[in-house]
Amino acid sequence: MAVSTKTKKNADDKPAEKGGIQSLERASMLLDLVASAGPDGMPLTELSERSGLHSSTAFHLIRTLENVGFLTKKDDSKRYLIGSKIFMLAAGAMNENALLLEGTPVLAALSDKTGEASHLAVRSNSEIVLVARMAAKGMLQMSERTGAVRPAHATAIGKILFSQCNEAELEQLLSDIDFRAYTDNTLTSAAKLRRELTDIRKNNVAHDRCELDPDVRCIAVPVYDFAGRCVAAMGVSGPVWRMSEDIIPQRIEELKTAAATLSKALGATF
Fold first, then answer.
1. pLDDT of residue 1
2. Alpha-carbon span 89 to 101, nearest angstrom
């Protein structure tokens, strides 16, 4: 007896155990499997085997995902890769709102652990814009884009974001900077900043050694997205008498752990 289209659709889309739609959950599982395969992709037979789905069920779901751009075939082979539509959706979600949504609890936990202020910043051309800041006592201080600009050459967050630029882009950025001296420790030339950026790239940690404020020291590390791009800088700052040379290595490890947590929330896979 033939099964009507309506009956078959209802059977395929029956509610899953947790109240979801089973076909969507299966499609999500297939996407996760393809993503885990990396640049080599995964063939239908393996996707069917690893998902536990019948080959015909897996085939129809994969064809649908391919039709809407969520999956694509590798060259002319039968191996499937994540499609461009997924990257478009992810890129569209990667804005300051996403950073705030995912970053706020991470900043709160970091400040709670270290007892110091934590902050998240992005780069807008040559300007370093503070997206959010968690005070040392755990109070979130939101910063508007206007009036929240920090000098790149005098801050750890700025140095981290500049260190991720290619040479051509960096050259342009350096030409836009007014190398103002905020303290006796401020880097006041492109040559000095270049030398420090070279050192920063070796270990992915930047320091503000009382360069913006004579009584405040800061460290910063990069935050990455699903494509491995640096999309933000995360930092910890505090008074020099607490951010001493003895405690800095511990703070760096705590900061790196927090940044890795946020990066994974944004899709990074390291």
1. 37
2. 17
For 129-152, write each residue's pLDDT tens digit. 888 888 886 555 544 433 368 999
Please state the pTM of the whole predicted model. 0.68
Dist CA 244 CA 119 (whole Å)? 19
**How confident is residue 39, by pLDDT bands cut at 50, 70 and 90?**
confident
Instruction: Determine the angle formed by the axes of helices 190-203 and 156-163, rounding to 10 degrees.
Output: 80
- Separation CA 207–CA 242 (nearest Å): 15
Residues 175-201: what's their mean pLDDT? 95
Amino acid identity, position 243: M
**C-alpha–C-alpha distance, residues 222 and 234, integer Å:** 6
The first and second tokens of residue 58, run together, are 């897996």
Rounded to 5°, angle at Cα 263 from 165 and 90:
85
Q: Assign domain 94-265 one CATH number from 3.30.450.40, 3.30.1330.10, 3.30.70.1520, 3.20.10.10.
A: 3.30.450.40
Annotation: CATH topology of 5-90: Arc Repressor Mutant, subunit A (1.10.10)
For residues 65-71, give the mean pLDDT: 88
- In the chain, which segments carry CATH 1.10.10.10? 5-90
**How many helices, marked H, and strands, marked E, lie in the chain?**
10, 10
